[in-house]
Amino acid sequence: MAREKTIIIGNWKMNYNVQEASLYLHKLAEAVKVRRDVEVILAPTTLTLQSLSMQVNRRQFKLAAQNLYWRDHGAYTGEVSARQLNGIADYALIGHSERRHIFHETDKDIRYKVQAAIRNRIRPVLLIGETSYERASGETEAVLQDQLVGGLLNLTSEELESVIVAYEPVWAIGTGVNAMPDDVSRAIKSIRNHIKHLYGRKAAEDTPVLYGGSVKADSASDYLKLDEVDGLVLGGASIDFHAFTEIVKKAHRARTQEDDE
Ligand code: PGA
Predict the structure, then answer these.
(1) How far apart are CA 130 and CA 139, in angstroms?
(2) pLDDT one-digit tens code per residue, 113-132
(3) DSSP secondary structure letters along 6-43
């Protein structure tokens, strides 16, 4: 990994109320050291983002929204816009498979959300990945290409600079089924290839690409040591204090071992 920082994102999903989230952040803040080579991003529910944003030390943790709405304001009952999140969230997860599959978000919704995030100075983390059916039908690469093109369409090269891509095979999310590191390498290479076709070699090299899907403390290093992987997205492991702090340590250790080589 040649990049300046390894990125570790903890997606808390729909867990923790305001008090619980605050306590958990407090515990993490005592245990996780600030490292110049690891960027730790916490993605709590929208409800708790604001209070955590006042509690968090941004040198230690950045905050991500798990979702946002692409219109800046207006009559959209129940939604929260990127404009409202500006100054509170540094990043936003966009296109998570749970959003695509449970809430039926389309590539068009996702593209508008990516654009809204950038317009409001929030870095989008575009999540893409194939279902087990698509994988079994040999469509992984085509699906990744479609979701990538669908999410990034019309972005300028300059706008692309703020985008992070995460490869999350749907069949590996929350299932305990690990993707094989070789498959992850292959998928991320193909993601970079598509970015190269769209934006050129430099953009392909510069765009951070993360892996996510049932990563636990004992499997994290298998992915962190892959050249193609710039970091991890953690769901279950991010709300497990010991697993999360261990994985952040491993991310730092993987970097220092790399520096020694
Ligand atoms: P998981 O979730 O680690 O629980 O599989 C990953 C994600 O949803 O991003």
Answers:
(1) 8
(2) 999 999 999 999 999 999 99
(3) EEEEEE-TT---HHHHHHHHHHHHHHPPP-TTEEEEEE
Pocket test for ligand 1, best of 168, 184, 218, 244 (most atoms within 8 A of CB): 168
Contact (Cβ atoms closer than 8 angstroms) between residue 210 and residue 164: yes
Q: Say which residues have a Cβ less than 8 Å from residue 186's Cβ, sequence separation at least 6.
A: none
CA distance 126 to 195: 13
Nearest CA-CA partner of 210 in 85, 96, 70: 96
Q: What is the DSSP secondary structure assignment for residue 88, as one 8-state letter?
A: T
Measured at the alpha carbon of residue 53, what is the angle toward residues 50 and 55, in degrees to the nearest 5? 115
Mark whether 96 is an active-site residue.
Answer: yes
Is the beta carbon of 6 within 6 A of some atom in ligand 1?
Answer: no
Minimum mean pLDDT among 142-146, 237-241, 254-258: which range? Answer: 254-258
Ligand 1 pocket test, candidate residues 15, 165, 233, 247, most atoms within 8 A of CB: 233
Q: Give CA–CA dist 236/223, Å, rounded.
A: 16
Q: How far is the CA of 236 from the centre of ligand 1 (A)?
A: 6
Q: Is residue 151 helix, strand or coil?
A: helix
The contacts of residue 197 (CB under 8 Å, 6+ apart) are none
Q: Is the pLDDT of residue 50 over 90?
A: yes
168 flagged as catalytic: yes
| Share in percent of the chain as helix, strand, coil (round to 5) | 50, 15, 35
